[in-house]
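Format notes (please read before filing issues)

Several people have asked whether sequences and structure tokens are stored in separate files. They are not. Every record keeps both together, in the order shown below: the sequence lines, then the token lines. Line labels are part of the format and must not be stripped during preprocessing.
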Amino acid sequence: MPVRPAVTEAELEAHLHGICFKTGPPRRIGVEIEFLVHDARNPRCPVEPDRLHEAADALRALPLRSLLTFEPGGQLELSSQPATSLTECIESVTADLALVRPAMLARGLGMAGHGHNPWHPPRRVLTDPRYNAMEAYFDRWGSAGRSMMCATASVQVCVDAGYDEPGPLGHGRRWLLAHLLGAVLAAAFANSPTSEGCPTGYRTTRQLIWSQLDPDRTLAPPLGPDPRTAWARYVLDAPVMCIRTDDGPWDAPEGLTFRDWVRTGVPRPPTQEDLDYHLTTLFPPVRPRGHLELRMIDAQSGDAGWVVPLAVTAALFDDPEAAERAYRTVKALAETAGPRPAPRNPLWRRAARGGLTDPELHAAAVACFAAAEEALPRLGASPEVRAAVAGFTERYVARGRCPADDHLDALYTAESDDLIPGKDSQ
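Then the structure lines:
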């Protein structure tokens, strides 16, 4: 399978330095949105793999601008092309969804925005070698890996790395901002409080799951003045999840880091192509892929629920004034976060458990959303987008709530009604 010659450790480090943070003026924005696919008439009924495969074939025939893929549990993902404005990004993905949703409904399938499947346990429907190896790898840490693969969905916002210099739009500042603001975004958009119909004790069960996985590939790298060097070290010291072969399983020797693989050449010498593939198996909360991929936001309910986290994040990163205000706001959260990396530090744990019921996160969210609302007109956001952000702010952020609280309220109300004698007959 390798098509390039083996390379040295120094060459791989140089390669990582060159591709992880592609600096320059922040001009582009992108989004990846995932949905849980369910039976349109009965969401609690698992969808058979044959129906999912048939739907996938039909969707791939549509003239979409976004890249369409399916996750191991059948989650549908649309990944936008890099857009030169927030408006362009929203319009492009909205147009694609206008094609995808009817095609799914025509096959009796619905698309739901939840950070974690609230109806049934994880079940894998994709059986290619990558996911076989991934499941076997994560099984060493318990059941969380299967839940992550098959029962979670997110809104991932992609922003440019920024300038190669200090300042509110510099890549070092934006890297730090992403890891502190990430906890605020996770709390504000928490939308996965249940599993198999029962509360888990967390507003975002999805974040709980990520905190239970292999720390060497899901924690943030050390934050410091040189993000490139820290990321290169993180990548090479991460265990190899799978070694691709032309036939047979893709399993890797347990405990083998990519650096070990380069130095030993066992079971075969790795190539730069192997390193590039290895990068796709690393899942920190913020992943540098030339741009910054923010991976901590739960999937959102509603046809356009994904627009609000996209708009807020874009405003706080790409408007200089809003970026400076957000940075000053979240910088104070570093003391709460402490030295441990996200998402296992106290700040991120509080975000996952309590959402915006946490006073410190609530205050930060109020300030950051206010900055975003002021910035959106400067970014050319439409009245509809600005109204959606204002509505979310009023309904949730201002009140110290998040979408997960609506789900919990509905669940507890239903349980209370079940306890009232004769309620069903009234």
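For reference, the curators noted about this record: The first helix runs from residue 9 to 19. The longest strand covers residues 29-39.
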